[in-house]
């Protein structure tokens, strides 16, 4: 009988999710046989979401890309032939050298996002390579970047409330976040707090899975959260609920904020939000007087034109009522701000030639079709950790651009995704258990280690190895292009930071995770006495001479060609571009606001090609109210077309009381090649007011039954 060798190894979920679960890989005779949650991790507590429970099946899926491939059929046909790694690398670098010689390096653009959150193999893993090349800088603002700009302007790069400290909160507002589907492990803490007496409020335009478990669901019209927050301010100030000593000592601009808030009455907000003035006053009073009070800000808040200003307003509320004085009081955006990652070392912005242009990832369709009238056309794109054909806006323009015969597309992928199917060269990339990395955690205060414990199937290699080989072929001699993955980890983290006291790579390899030394769940109150990481050390209600910007990690750490428009010195409500209230002419043709949250069963577009995940998630659907369905003679389960002037997609009608009349909801992630269109076919590529974030929920559509 053959011997069986079983081992266990530390893992970290690499997916674009705030939970960043600590995992345990189980390996038998060199094969990954199962993945389970690490029960010792205080935050993730041994749990895994429905996406990850059978992660090993994704590693060994029969459709996985196992070898380098060259396109042999029409673009988008998915027809490829196997080639060697040497042939692939030679063809790529020869094509790039020819493009550089004829057009210059800015005719090439990298394209990535958080399909992998690893420090080594993730978002920024190829940045140093393309910065050395002098390629166009890609500004990647899919999710959270408007929120980042607003947060940094208001309170600075603070992690805010420890997500684990919500156990001490007595009043919890989940604002624009469907935690049950997208932040499960924080939701468990919220539920534990609820059992201990905390009141949980969910603010969301539709009745999400999370809203259904709240004590109170408040449903403002899409894109009106800023008006709701400003009216809360009005009530807090008008009714003398301000904690004046905190405001006087630890904030900037209160008098000016109070003057603006005078005009932002609950009655004014009721007209805009649809939330009654009575409810707005009750919410403000309860938030001010029930301490510790904490707000969990969701990324959905930024997805309308005024999203940045809305987040500034919401981020100002805790300081007004002194919530920061308490453990479990304040606000939570992205705890990543206190993680000691060395993005300058990862990205090497010092290699970027002066004057290099920037193109935003959301507007890649406009760039590829040259709607932008670029002085240097895009002649090549390399895509990794991203699938813009499903996830970026104005999808039909992207497809038109990728169909160009003169566009040389390289894709490093696990599967022939919607984007990879248009590639000229496809490179097989490794998956989680097949590479060493540390996973960037943007939802908690732990460093998370991922051990390589199995070899990649076929000829797949990790992303960073792809870039090491490309750098060698291009003749790049910088030391960082020769570091192996372990050396990258040694250099990519500031191990000498106070936050890393007692932690090094050896510790992580032994334990799998480590909590940063930034206080504990039971004592962390970082802004009890101010100490905000801003220029003044205070929370900034008012900012003077501020201009719009995108945080460095989302633009290869390049500071050139920032948006730069002047910003309002104070928070306020800024109306959306596409609503029946703000654009009545457009609403005559497209009367319904569409909301496009993330799905429960997919992780962005990951798993949307896996049969059991598709079965559990169901077909692409659109949630619609009975009133709107009746008006259009739509029956439950009918196939309908959701469309506007930008494009459309087919979906199954779900008639439900979970959405209000005038609103439809369709979740993201379904692949275009398996469906007639995708949700982002209807999405505008215009930006919100801050951080070049996308207006994914600032879109009007019509819905019609397909007869």
Task: Give structural notes.
This protein is an alpha/beta fold and 707 residues long. It folds into three domains: 69-136 and 356-515, 3-Layer(aba) Sandwich (Rossmann fold), CATH 3.40.50; 150-336, Dimethylsulfoxide Reductase, domain 2 (3-Layer(aba) Sandwich); 584-705, Barwin-like endoglucanases. It has 22 helices and 27 strands. A six-stranded mixed beta sheet has the order 5-4-17-16-15-6, covered by helices on one side. α12 (307-320) links the parallel β12 (293-297) and β13. α7 packs antiparallel against α10 (266-273). The longest helix is centred in the N-terminal third of the chain and has 19 residues, at 85-103.
Briefly summarize what is shown.
The protein is α/β, with parallel strands linked by helices. Helix content is 27%, strand content 17%.
């Amino acid at each position: 009988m053959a011997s069986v060798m079983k081992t266990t190894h530390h893992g970290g979920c690499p997916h674009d999710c705030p939970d960043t679960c600590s995992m345990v890989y189980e390996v038998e005779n060199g094969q990954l046989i199962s993945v389970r949650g690490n029960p010792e991790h205080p935050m993730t507590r041994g749990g895994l979401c429905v996406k990850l429970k059978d992660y090993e099946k994704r590693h060994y899926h029969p459709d996985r890309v196992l070898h380098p491939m060259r396109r042999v059929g029409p673009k988008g046909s998915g027809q490829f032939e196997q080639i060697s790694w040497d042939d692939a690398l030679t063809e790529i670098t020869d094509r790039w050298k020819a493009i550089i010689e004829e057009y210059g390096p800015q005719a090439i653009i990298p394209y990535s996002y958080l399909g992998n959150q690893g420090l080594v193999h993730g978002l920024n893993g190829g940045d140093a390579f393309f910065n050395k090349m002098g390629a166009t800088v890609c500004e990647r603002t899919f999710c959270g970047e408007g929120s980042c700009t607003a947060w940094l302007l208001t309170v600075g790069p603070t992690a805010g409330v420890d997500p684990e400290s919500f156990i001490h909160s007595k009043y919890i507002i989940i604002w624009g976040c469907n935690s049950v589907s997208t932040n499960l492990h924080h939701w468990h803490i919220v539920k534990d707090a609820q059992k201990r007496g905390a009141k949980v409020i969910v603010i969301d335009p539709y009745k999400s899975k999370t809203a259904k478990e709240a004590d109170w669901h408040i449903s403002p019209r899409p894109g009106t959260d800023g008006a709701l927050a400003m009216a809360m301010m009005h009530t807090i100030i008008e009714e003398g609920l301000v904690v004046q000593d905190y405001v006087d000592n630890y904030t900037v601009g209160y008098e000016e904020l109070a003057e603006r808030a005078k005009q932002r009455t609950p009655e004014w907000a009721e007209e805009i939000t649809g939330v009654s003035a009575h409810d707005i006053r009750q919410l403000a009073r309860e938030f001010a007087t029930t301490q510790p009070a904490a707000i969990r800000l969701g990324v959905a808040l930024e997805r309308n034109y005024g999203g940045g200003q809305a987040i500034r307003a919401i981020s100002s509320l805790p300081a007004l009522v002194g919530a920061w004085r308490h453990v479990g009081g304040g606000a939570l955006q992205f705890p990543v701000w206190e993680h000691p990652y060395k993005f300058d070392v990862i990205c090497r912005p010092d290699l970027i030639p002066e004057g290099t242009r920037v193109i935003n990832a959301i507007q890649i369709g406009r760039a590829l079709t040259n709607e932008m009238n670029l002085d240097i056309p895009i002649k090549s794109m390399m895509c990794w950790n991203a699938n813009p054909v499903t996830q970026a806006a104005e999808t039909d323009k992207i497809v038109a651009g990728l169909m160009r015969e003169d566009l040389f597309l390289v894709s490093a992928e696990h599967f022939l995704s919607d984007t990879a199917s248009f590639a000229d060269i496809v490179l097989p990339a490794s998956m989680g258990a097949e590479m060493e990395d540390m996973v960037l955690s943007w939802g908690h205060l732990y460093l998370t280690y991922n051990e390589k414990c199995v070899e990649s199937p076929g000829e797949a290699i990790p992303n960073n190895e792809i870039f090491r080989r490309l750098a060698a072929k291009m003749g790049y001699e910088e030391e960082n292009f020769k570091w192996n993955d372990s050396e990258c980890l040694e250099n990519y983290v500031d191990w000498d930071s106070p936050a890393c006291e007692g932690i090094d790579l050896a510790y992580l390899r032994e334990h799998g995770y480590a909590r940063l030394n930034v206080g504990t769940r039971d004592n962390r109150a970082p802004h009890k006495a101010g100490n905000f990481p801003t220029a003044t050390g205070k929370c900034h209600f008012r900012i003077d001479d501020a201009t719009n910007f995108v945080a460095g990690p989302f633009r290869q750490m390049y500071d050139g060609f920032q948006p730069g428009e002047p910003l309002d010195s104070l928070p306020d409500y800024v109306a959306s571009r596409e609503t029946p209230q703000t654009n009545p002419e457009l609403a005559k043709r497209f009367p319904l606001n569409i909301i496009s949250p993330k799905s429960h069963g997919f992780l962005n577009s990951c798993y949307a090609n896996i049969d059991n995940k598709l079965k559990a998630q169901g077909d692409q659907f659109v949630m619609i109210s009975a009133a709107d369905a009746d008006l259009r003679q739509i029956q439950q389960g009918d196939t309908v077309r959701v469309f506007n002037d930008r494009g459309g997609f087919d979906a199954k009608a779900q008639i439900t009381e979970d959405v209000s009349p005038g609103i439809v909801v369709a979740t993201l992630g379904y692949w275009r090649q398996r469906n007639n269109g995708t949700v982002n076919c209807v999405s505008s590529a215009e930006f919100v007011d801050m951080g070049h974030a996308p207006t994914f929920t600032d879109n009007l559509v019509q819905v019609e039954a397909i007869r």
